[in-house]
Write a structure and sequence with these properties.
The protein is mainly alpha-helical and 75 residues long. The chain has 5 helices and 2 strands; from the N terminus they run βαααααβ.
C-alpha cells in the first residue's frame, strides 16, 4: 500500500497547504484529496512541482508498505 506523507513534509518545511497550492498551481481541494490518500493517481508534472517546491524527492512524500498497514513511524 502506498501512503502519502505530504502533511508531514509540509510541517517539516514550515509551509501551509495553501502556500504549496499557490506555488504549484493546483486547487486546495485537489491537494486535500492527495494529502488524504484518496487520490487514485498523481501526474508526474504535479509530483515534480511538489518536489521542487518542498525541495524533496518523491520518496519523501510517498511511502510503500506491504500488508496495507502503515508502519509505526508513519502514523
Amino acid at each position: 500500500m502506498i501512503y502519502v506523507t505530504l502533511t508531514e513534509m509540509l510541517e517539516k518545511k514550515q509551509m501551509t497547504s495553501k502556500m504549496l497550492c499557490e506555488i504549484i498551481g493546483i486547487t486546495e481541494a485537489n491537494l486535500s484529496i492527495l494529502r488524504s490518500g484518496k487520490a487514485k493517481a498523481i501526474r508526474f508534472t504535479t509530483l515534480n512541482a511538489i518536489c521542487q517546491a518542498l525541495e524533496c524527492h518523491p520518496g519523501d512524500i510517498l511511502r510503500y508498505t506491504e500488508g496495507g498497514q502503515p508502519e509505526d513511524d508513519m502514523v
